[in-house]
Amino acid sequence: MKGKGVGYALYKKVILALGLGFSDFNSTVDAKRVWTKLVKDPDFYSLVFSNGDKCCISKVLPNDYITTVVDSLIINTLMEETEIDSSHYGEIDNDLFFKYYGKLYIMSSELKDIIEDYYS
Predict the structure, then answer these.
(1) Is 1 contained in some domain?
(2) pTM for the whole thing?
(3) Which are the contacts of 54, defined by CB distance < 8 A and separation ≥ 6?
(4) Beta partners for 49?
(5) Which of 51, 54, 62, 96 is deepest in the core (most CB within 10 A)?
């Protein structure tokens, strides 16, 4: 079945059902190819992290949920690189946010607008 788009269709269906999905830095080559296509799918807002991990968020989710997801992703990045811990969810100041926000490649200007409106 390789090359028939089954993996893409399956991943997409799961992401749409759950609202979001994440790739893994340690994914197989085939999974990485699928994720490279998924982040370009018009049904998703997509993020690519500096380590190559990817996230697809369904566009049907409400903006406040989307910003909560992105906020959590920023906190997780901060936890990996600083002394901040998970008790700080929702308490990031704007300067700190935008410092780590730069570590994400956001594939959609719509998503950038949602995030920047939330943090401004």
Answers:
(1) no
(2) 0.75
(3) 22, 23, 35, 36, 38, 39, 46, 47, 48
(4) 104
(5) 54
